[in-house]
Design a protein that fits this description.
EAL domain-containing protein, Cyclic-di-GMP_PDE-like, TIM Barrel, nine-stranded mixed β-sheet, EAL_sf
Length: 229
Amino acid sequence: MAFQPIVDVHQKRIVYYEALVRGLNGESAGSILDQVTDDLMYRFDQDCRIKAIELASQLDMQEILSINFMPNAVYEPEACIRATLETSQRVGWPTQRLNFEITETERVRDRAHLRNIIESYHAMGFTTSLDDFGNGFANLDLLTDLRPDTLKIDRELIMGCDTNKRRQAILRSIVVLAENLGTKLVGEGIETREESRCLVDLGINVQQGFYFSRPKLEALATIDPKKYH
């Protein structure tokens, strides 16, 4: 597992670490997931959760741990969360410091199933995020049924936002939408200081990307204080 920080630029601190799957030689998450067959997806999803929590505990992480999960790997929320809860209890990880990021939404055909997962996780004390918002299937129609705590705005809407008026207009609309829905926002894929400052000016203070830190393999990155300015 690798961990990438998610920072609050206004508060000048790390608020989350996202756990990301990596291969033994640093291969990307996508290349690893491509090797996981459908019949192994549930086991793989469970093992990733356990590994992320164990490693975060070993590294003495104090921030919220954000774990990706694929909805189609969850057949029944209460049953599928048992190993996560047992691991959290074993290593002393507070459940209120767990956030689950919903990925692979394009493969979800049963919207009621996804809504049930989010509602069940909320009832257990977890928070949830909708990843890649604004790109492909992670779009507005999902919010008619789902109530995630956080929307992670996709890199496609953020890249070059400091010089692109159309992107700025879309991002302003997302900020208003999130306020009306009572949902928090995270800007993903920040690569330049100019993008970061533009998002702050638009009201998006929580950010993630290579500008702050690349994912660190089995380690927790620190942030150069100059990045917050």
